[in-house]
UniProtKB/TrEMBL annotation:
GO terms for molecular function: transmembrane transporter activity. Keywords: Cell inner membrane, Cell membrane, Membrane, Transmembrane, Transmembrane helix, Transport. It comes from Bradyrhizobium centrolobii. The chain crosses the membrane at residues 6-27, 39-58, 64-82, 94-115, 121-142, 163-190, 223-245, 291-316. The keyword Manganese does not apply. Its main location: membrane. CDD domains: TM_PBP1_transp_AraH_like. It comes from the Bacteria. GO terms for cellular component: plasma membrane. Pfam families: BPD_transp_2. It is a multi-pass membrane protein. The keyword Transmembrane applies. This is Sugar ABC transporter permease.
Length: 334
């Protein structure tokens, strides 16, 4: 049981040791920083996804939210907001641009939550629909073109966007600092607040939670809004790092986010999981991906290996659940 509980952490150590031995310079500080920057985007996505899965839901739209948030930022920085009636164009500054993009991400999450709670649409179907809507909207914003050179214009007061993806704070990349902040806040909310306890209650037994006074629909909507917010921030980090926004950005990212959460011990049936576990799961996937690239492994084999890891994680999760049930039954029988 102890080995099963710490399986993801053990897997992370094994992966680090393996690539540290087989790949030159893998454990050098510059390499580890690059790996951590790559992990940060998926980990932030996975943090939002964890709240959704804890409520026994799923969010397939996060990859498309990544794309549309970057495109909105690109449009605001390069085209501004045209007001044809007044014959003027407003160019928001970087803070306002980021806030608008994050608001759109949370708005898509709100729509997901309302579809699921208000219209009783299955989470898989609802978020699959918004996946296509958000991706289509991202393409429509620029007719499928890329917004490039997102450095802003000093005369318009909208410079500084690249700092989010490539800047540093006290020598630490901003994206890594953001991951630490997101993880700390999420861990506190999930483990120390009434909202967090209610999220677990809804996922563990929705009917019992409702009977005990938990506003189930409100909790679910908030969980999807958190997921959309995290996805939008991840999209901004990617656009900032590339200094460009592409409408196809974020494709299949939802699968990596789900994989990180499940690998970290979050149960797809809801009610069980931790933010710390999700972070470890994200690092396992990130280190595995970057390590395989450094070893020169074919991208086709990388997909195969990642799929095997995800399947193994789900199988082990099911085994752990059966073991818990068996031990609980034995304890009841004396």
């Amino acid at each position: 049981m102890l080995l099963m509980s710490f399986r993801t952490f053990i897997a992370l150590i094994v992966v680090f040791v393996f690539f540290g031995v087989t790949t030159p310079n893998f454990l050098d500080v510059p390499t580890l920083i690059i790996v951590a920057k790559h992990v940060a985007v998926n980990a932030i996505l996975a943090i939002g996804m964890t709240f959704v899965i804890l409520t026994a839901g799923i969010d397939l739209s996060v990859g498309s939210i990544v794309g549309i948030s970057g495109m909105i930022a690109g449009a605001l920085l390069t085209r501004g907001i045209p007001l044809d009636v007044l014959d003027v164009t407003i160019f928001p500054n970087v803070i306002e641009t980021i806030a608008i993009s994050l608001g759109v991400g949370a708005g898509v999450g709100l729509i997901n939550g309302l579809l699921i709670t208000g219209l009783n649409v299955a989470p898989f179907i609802a978020t699959l629909g918004t996946l296509y809507v958000a991706r289509g909207a991202a393409l429509l914003i620029s007719d499928g073109a890329t917004f490039s050179n997102l450095v802003g214009d000093p005369n318009l007061g909208n410079t500084g966007f690249p700092f989010l993806g490539s800047g540093t704070l006290l020598g630490v990349p901003v994206s890594i600092v953001a991951l630490v902040i997101f993880a700390a806040v999420a861990a506190y909310v999930a483990g120390r607040t009434p909202f967090g306890r209610q999220v677990y209650a809804v996922g563990g037994n929705e009917r019992a939670a409702a009977l005990s006074g938990v506003r189930v629909n409100r909790i679910k909507v908030c969980a999807y809004m958190i997921s959309g917010f995290c996805a939008a921030f991840a999209g901004l980090v990617i656009a900032s790092e590339l200094v460009a926004a592409h409408p196809a950005s974020g494709e299949t990212f939802e699968l990596n986010a789900i994989a990180a959460a499940v690998l970290g011990g979050t149960s797809l049936s809801g009610g069980r999981g931790t933010i710390a576990g999700t972070l470890i799961g994200a690092f396992v996937i990130g280190v595995l991906s970057d390590g395989l690239v450094m070893l020169g492994v074919s991208s086709f084999w990388q997909m195969v290996i990642k799929g095997i890891v995800i399947i193994a994680a789900v199988v082990l999760d099911q085994m752990q659940r059966r073991m818990y049930r068996r031990f609980a039954l034995e304890a009841q029988l004396g």
